[in-house]
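Problem statement: downstream parser choked on a complex file, so we are re-checking the raw output for the XIL run. The parser issue turned out to be on our end (a line-ending mismatch), but while we're here, posting the original submission so the record is complete.
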Amino acid sequence: MLSGTATPASEITRKVGDFGTQEFVAKRGESGATASLKDAFRDRFYVGTAINRAITTGAGGLRRSPEQVAKDIAQVKEQFNQVVAENEMKWALIHPRAGANGYDFASADAFVNFGLSNNMYLVGHTLVWHAQTPQWVFAGTNPPPAGVTNSTARAFANTNTFGTNRFGRGGFGFGPYTGPRASREELLERMRDHIHTVVGRYKGKIKVWDVVNEALADGGTNVLRKSLWLEIIGPDFIAKAFQYAHEADPEAILRYNDYSLENPAKRHKLITLIRSLQEQKVPVHAIGSQAHLNVSTGYEEMDQALTEMATLGLPIHITELDVNSAQGGQRTTGADISSNATTTQGGLVSDADRKLAEAYAGLFRAFIKHEKSVKVVTFWGPNDANSWRANGKPLLFDGNNQPKPAFAAVIAEAKKANAVK
Ligand code: XIL
C-alpha cells in the first residue's frame, strides 16, 4: 500500500479493519531496524527528517566518512517520507551576496533533487529569520538609531549574528551589525526579491515553506523578538513575508515556525501572533512547532501544548523534533539557538536510553491523540551523529545508524494505536 509514493497523509483514507494485523516492514533494512517510521505512521502523518549537504550529494561530511554517509542515505530512504534541508535554504547559504549573482542554488537544488527522486514530501526552511542571514541584507545608508553602539549592538548577538559558536563555522562568520541600515522600503524589496526568487524556483516541488522563523520573544512581555527585521520594517514584516510567499506559490502551505511552544508563556505569544495574522487575512496555513525538547517533556506537556495550539484551527507540524537525553540543555525560553547547541555537553544520565524511550513514547502518544491537527512530524536529523545536538544523543538512531530503544518505543505506540482502530 502506498509504497514509495508521496501521497499527502491527509488524503490517505484509513481502511477500517486494516489495522492490528498490519506488518510495518517486511525486510530488515540497512539500519538493522525491523520496522519503518514512515510505514508505522503512514495513515496519520508524514514522518520526516532534516538532511544536510553530505546526504543530498553523497559526499563525506565534516564528521562523517563517505561510508557512513552512504549508510545515512540508506537510513533516510528506509525510514522517512518527508525531508527538509537542515541549512541549505537559509538566506546565508542560498543568497549570500547582494546583486545579480547573489544566489547560490547548487546545494538547495541537490536537496530538492534528492527528495524528488525518492518520492518524498519536501519542506523548505526558512525564508525570513534573524539568524543565518548575511549582514548585507540589513545594510544601507540610514544611520542606526540613537543609542545603537557596539556595546548595545552586542545585545543582538543572540539575534543577528553567528558568532564563534557552531554558527561561526562553515563560512557564516558575521559579527553584530551596527552599521548604517537599509530603509523599510529597501528591506521589504530585498525580502520580496528573495522570497519570490527562492519560492518561485521550487514552485510545485516544495510543498511547505517555513516563511517566518522564530519571530517571538522569549522572555518579557513583548510578543516579538528584537531583530533587525522588526526594527527596520516594523511588526508587519511577518505579514509581508507571508504575502510575498503566497504570491510566489499560491499552492504552497505556508508555515510560521518557532521553538519552546511547550512553554505556556511563549505559546500564548504564538496564539496572539497567529490570531492577529488571521484577523488580517494573512495567508498563514500551518503552525510549525520545533520541539527541541529534553527527556522531562512527555505526554502531558505535549498534549496541553497541542490542545491549545489546535484552537487556532490550523494544521500543526512538529518541525525539528529532538529530545536531549543529557540533563539540561533543553532549549529553554532564555536560551538562544547557539548556546543550545553546546549546552548538551556532559551529564548524560546513566539510564539515558530508557528515559529517552519513555519521553518519545509519551510525545508520540500525544501526536497520535492529536492526529487531526498533527500532519507532519520531522526529526532534526536522521541519527545522533549528524544531529546539531549530537552530544545529547537526541534521536531514535545512534551514530552507527542502529535503532535505539526509543525507536522501538515509538513503533510500539504506532502499533498500539493502530490495533485499537
Ligand atoms: C541549526 C542547524 O541544525 C545547524 O546545523 C546550524 O549550525 C544552526 O541551525 N532552529 C531552526 C533550525 O529553525 O534552522 C536550526 O538549525 C535549529 C534551531
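For whoever reads this later: The CA atoms of residues 299 and 363 lie 5 Å apart.
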